[in-house]
DNA sequence: CATTTTGTTCAACAATATTGAACTAAGACG
DNA sequence: CGTCTTAGTTCAATATTGTTGAACAAAATG
């Protein structure tokens, strides 16, 4: 541990406990005590504190993550002024194409999945709102990545490892820089099975005053995302939708 | 303050700070210091801790609630085994009726709004997933309330005040007990502008092994929810949907 | 460039988190 | 039934850690 990390250790431990409950499901006092290597009495105090604040809920003898988190998470979501517009447009995209439409936001150098809807023939993913991944391995992530400032791009490349998800994932920094350049020229990003095998997608950034606020994407099975459809039809649909959102945003912004 | 409240004070304060950020939007160190009456250096340590755990995000000089909450909130949601079934059925209800369809869950004696979809002519509400309200003032709340154990009902009535939301809200315990009895006999609950003026709704509980797990509801403007439609048509639709969910649940449960 | 404001660092001190031991409650078992 | 076992709870001493102002750095303001 570093000398001065300037953090509250008890709070760190509280979050560690919450994480443990998320990963391992509901637990009793004794289980937590053993698994986290803390005395029972300490666990009790922690759970009392979490329960008092509704972040953890007692169900008989077991404690679980509470719905209180949802309230704060939803606040963070709706706090982004783009969100309402993006949400309805994503739903429209899923409806008209039948594929999986989604929206990602950048936070702390990661892509966060904030909304998605499945069209009637969409592929199924196990993505849940709030899930995070590297910016380098999805179309949505790359669409955002490409439009960050040059310094921020280099900062993120140097700080985060370009983790390999599939054989197609771009893990070489130089290759990534070239890819981002192409995305800026093209106006949209592709993923050719770079995060999930068998899944391809197309994403476009949403820019407001030159700043990227999020990206929207369409994803589908590799066999449907080929040829003309993949290289021009789907990109046009996605970019069109992104454009409409941008227009609504600038309109509503000036209309204040 | 009580003698021994057996809670971690620093953690309580962390949550207080998060709550402040939710209520008042992004804040700087100095603002928080003034508004929460804490020294700047203390605020700093708190924000460092929250930021390190991604629950708060620094945006220039201001700190905001982070999307990390979303991940835990979503976990809590999907942790309920009913949720996937309920979600699709609620969407179906909104589609076929054009009204506002929603699902509520009980937690800590409160109704928590966990999912909702607006049909094409639905009334607009400012409800956000994760919002909480008393069990006594909505159709969804009462539908759940009525099917809790008798002891739990009395416990909740005695511990929580039956807060008045509109002139129609039931605030008298005896009146509420009678209402709950009728709901049990009828199989569904009504709200006649008891939480929001001009809004009526119909809700049905979803029971699994005799335990109520959540409720689903349809809400609409008072002028559309009248006569035959309000007393039999909508209730039949809602109860039908609830039944289908119950069947799917018992089926998938035994199928394990 | 001077001035004010805001953010950050640090080490001493006070506060509080931590702990085991003692206690109670609930189940298991014969 | 009563004993044994296991799980949950309480509490007061101690050591750890949270808290703080003061001093510094950085940025914004005039």
Automatic annotation (TrEMBL), chains A, B:
This is Transcriptional regulator, IclR family. PANTHER family: HELIX-TURN-HELIX TRANSCRIPTIONAL REGULATOR, ICLR FAMILY, HTH-TYPE TRANSCRIPTIONAL REGULATOR RV1719. One of its GO terms (biological process) is negative regulation of DNA-templated transcription. Residues 8-67 form the HTH iclR-type domain. GO terms for molecular function: DNA binding; DNA-binding transcription factor activity. The keyword Zinc does not apply. It comes from the Archaea. SUPFAM superfamilies: GAF domain-like, Winged helix' DNA-binding domain. The keyword Isomerase does not apply. The lineage of its organism: Archaea, Methanobacteriati, Methanobacteriota, Stenosarchaea group, Halobacteria. Keywords: DNA-binding, Transcription, Transcription regulation. Residues 68-251 form the IclR-ED domain.
């Amino acid at each position: 541990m570093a000398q001065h990390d300037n953090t509250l250790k008890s709070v760190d431990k509280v979050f560690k406990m919450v994480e443990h409950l998320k990963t391992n499901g509901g637990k009793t006092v004794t289980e937590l005590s053993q698994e986290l290597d803390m005395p029972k009495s300490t666990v009790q105090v922690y759970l009392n504190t979490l329960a008092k604040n509704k972040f953890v809920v007692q169900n008989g003898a077991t404690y679980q993550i509470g719905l209180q988190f949802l309230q704060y998470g939803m606040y963070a979501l709706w706090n982004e002024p783009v969100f309402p517009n993006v949400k309805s447009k994503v739903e429209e995209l899923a409806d008209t194409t039948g594929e999986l439409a989604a929206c990602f936001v950048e936070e702390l150098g990661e892509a966060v999945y904030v909304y998605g809807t499945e069209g009637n023939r969409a592929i199924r993913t196990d993505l849940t709102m709030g899930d995070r991944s590297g910016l380098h391995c999805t179309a949505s992530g790359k669409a955002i990545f490409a439009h960050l400032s040059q310094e921020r791009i280099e900062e993120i490349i140097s700080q985060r490892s370009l983790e390999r998800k599939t054989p197609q994932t771009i893990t070489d920094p130089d290759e990534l820089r070239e890819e981002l350049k192409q995305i800026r020229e093209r106006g949209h990003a592709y993923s050719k099975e770079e995060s999930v095998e068998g899944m391809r997608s197309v994403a476009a950034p949403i820019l407001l005053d030159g700043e990227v606020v999020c990206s929207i994407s369409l994803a589908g099975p590799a066999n449907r995302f080929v040829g003309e459809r993949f290289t021009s039809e789907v990109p046009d649909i996605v970019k069109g939708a992104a454009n409409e959102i941008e227009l609504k945003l600038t309109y509503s912004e000036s209309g204040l």
